[in-house]
Description:
By secondary structure, this protein is an alpha+beta fold. Helix content is 51%, strand content 19%.
Amino acid sequence: MAIHRAELRELIRDLHSIPREVREELRPSVLAAGGIVAEEARRNSSWSTRIPDAIWVSGRFSGGNSAGVRVAVNIRKAPHAPFYEGPPAVFYHSLYGNRRHWYPEAARPFLKVALVSKADEATEVIDDMVAHVLQRHGFR
């Protein structure tokens, strides 16, 4: 199931009309959906010793277009992660600071791949929780 930007904006607008206490009940499901994507990203980046531990999840329902869930990499813990995520498909780096010789390295996307492969599962988690919470509070 593909989610389009316009549908996300409409969902965010609708979420702002829901009372705050109801939104807070929905927060765990949003974080759980992000956790599904984050776990897949950790598996996808298991070739690295630093990237899996640097992946984090946050979620919020306030702030206009920033509402939702975020799965990201702490670049202080894994500064090389953005290069592997790409584009381009190949990047170049020096070895041990020797800038006279540059070596090609293939990108190994892990976040985008995780999002694409787990989008349906994550969406299902959110859909189920939204339906349950809203029904419990009298929304139809």
